[in-house]
Amino acid sequence: MKKRLFFVSLTLLFFAALIWGNLPKITPYYTQLTKNRIGLNVDLQPQAQKDAHFVGSSRCKECHDENYHDWKASMHAKMIQEIKKDPNVVVADFSTLPKDADFALKDAVYTIGSKFKQRYMIPATINGKDDFRLGNYQWNTQNKKWQHFKPYKYWYHDSYPHDNRQFPTSTTCDGCHFTGYMSTEKRVEPAIACESCHGPGSNHIEDPDNPVFKANMNDPIRTNEVCLQCHMRNRDKRIKTQNLTAKDLWMQAKDYPSGYEAGKALIDYKLPAPFVHGKETKEFWANGAAKKNRTQGNEYIHDSMYKHGVTCINCHDPHKLTNTAKKPQGNNACMKCHSFGSIIGPHQESIEAHTHHKAHSKGSLCIECHMPKTAKHTGKSPLTVRSHLFSFTYPIETKMYGMPPETNACYACHKDKNLDTLQNDLKKWGQLEWEKLEGHPLK
């Protein structure tokens, strides 16, 4: 009897393994992707957080040491760094600072960034209160040069004096760069720290049964809002709710969703940067692809993966910040859900059949075709910002939308050919879709 049960169990395990091995790779995410969707205007912040205050990441470390350790090594922890604590955080060569600079190293208290560019925060009294301003030069880490910086030139150019010394970081930068500032106007911690993503933690510190916001436990569409609070270009919400112009918001225009905390309905605080398909702006090409950094959310909300419930943290570890533009994880990051012949594709039998390139060549890397470099971190930087539209942009589309050839995935590698030739190559491969045909009105 025991022998028979053993063989029956073994047989069942064999068939279970066989079935599991032939299930789509997306199967482990089934629960997430089929969660009941919650409206964008529903408040998901735990009730226990409503009267909580920010305490700083050092208090989180007491119980969440591993997550704290991973975060501390990430770039989020290094967004704002105090120069006096560690002079080595300065990456610029101040010996070559141009003579018309309106600051010196001794004036700067904080650095902003270091990965692609670095700017410098200088104490200033602006609009009658203690604040910070930015220097009129920034260090471009990509070309190792100083370049002019005019922070007032963006969408709020009618909201502030065209003078760096009268341009406050409190309304334009600090909401995203300092933990706690977005909702309290207090610089609780000079970093994008734990409570930027989980909300204020004082009540949770007092009693661990009082929860903080956990993104992956909620509607996946709403989960993304933790990232979108900053990784989505926006306008001041009052432009819409109070029918104001940037000029009406003189010295008050905010470039972050003022009042927002993780879990709250971001739509109540954030007005995304406007975009009409087919019309190029300062922030987007006419197909919706990014022209600037920090536009991941603006692009991704138009993608089918977003609509089906794939979240930012499915691809990026939220504490380690892995799989970045500088250190991508390669095809494995995509193939953990996608597989050849699966219901979500690729619908070919091999990578070569899908890409028409050799398996281990650049042309067979998923991100090179589906996340081409379309944007820059500054006007004088190289194209290093990858699109989060994910749909493949054909050469004919690049041409019709008036985009620079360099932003096209094919041309980026094959600069010896023009867009028309590259489009014909795709036609020879049979790689055309109805909506991509020449002369067809693009949606």
Q: What is the averaged pLDDT score?
A: 93
Q: Stretches where pLDDT falls below 50 for ≥5 residues?
A: none
SS element count, helices: 21
| Beta strands, count | 10
Shape: globular
Percent range of helical residues: 25-40%
Q: What is the terminal separation in angstroms?
A: 66 Å
Q: Which percent band covers the strand fraction?
A: 5-15%
Secondary-structure-based class equals: alpha+beta
Largest sheet, if any? 6 strands, antiparallel
- Rounded to the nearest angstrom, the radius of gyration is 24 Å
Describe this structure in words.
- By secondary structure, the chain is α+β, with helices and mostly antiparallel strands.
- It has a domain at 47-275.
- The protein contains 21 helices and 10 strands.
- It has helices at residues 2-22, 30-33, 57-61, 65-72, 169-172, 174-177, 181-184, 194-198, 202-206, 220-223, 225-228, 238-241, 296-300, 304-308, 312-315, 332-335, 351-355, 366-370, 395-400, 409-413, 419-429, and strands at 80-82, 110-112, 117-126, 129-134, 137-140, 145-148, 234-235, 271-272, 373-375, 385-386.
- Strands 1, 2, 3, 4, 5 and 6 form a 6-stranded antiparallel beta sheet that branches.
- Strand 5 and strand 6 (145-148) form a beta hairpin.
- The N and C termini lie far apart (66 Å).
- The mean pLDDT is 93.
List keywords for this structure.
two-stranded antiparallel sheet; alpha+beta; 443 residues
